[in-house]
Design goal:
55% strand, Immunoglobulin-like, mainly beta, three-stranded antiparallel beta sheet, 0% helix, seven-stranded mixed beta sheet, 118 residues, disordered N terminus
Length: 118
């Protein structure tokens, strides 16, 4: 059985929370290869969460909401090795969180929460 590892890093960007403030995106591993992604949306803007395969940009999962908080439970265990991104859009601002999945004896999922403003 393959296990999962999630590697996280965080860095603030303009118009997103500064250090010490609540972060708009929270990722929690709930079991091997399964993650809960929560997005804080207090202004109730149109929000979107996507899982995108890179580099071809194919959207593998998408949900949207105007609720103050929304999210999804994502099972990444069966995805093939490769580069992916979690894409979070709130209003006109979009953030991309790169993720690399690779398998050895233990399944590794590295999600970099140092996003880039799109």
């Amino acid at each position: 059985m393959l296990g999962g590892i999630l590697c996280l890093g965080a860095r603030a960007k303009a118009n997103w929370p500064q250090p010490g403030e609540a972060q708009p995106v929270h990722v929690e591993q709930v079991s091997a290869g399964v993650y809960v992604v929560r997005v804080s949306n207090p202004a109730q803007q149109t929000g979107r969460l996507q899982l995108v395969r890179l580099p071809d940009g194919v959207v593998l999962y998408e949900s949207s909401s105007r609720k103050p908080a929304f999210g999804s439970k994502l099972n990444l265990q069966e995805l093939p090795n490769g580069n992916y991104a979690l894409v979070v859009q709130l209003g006109k601002e979009q953030r991309r969180y790169p993720m690399q999945i690779s398998s050895t004896e233990q399944r590794q999922i590295a999600l970099d929460l140092a996003s880039t403003l799109q």
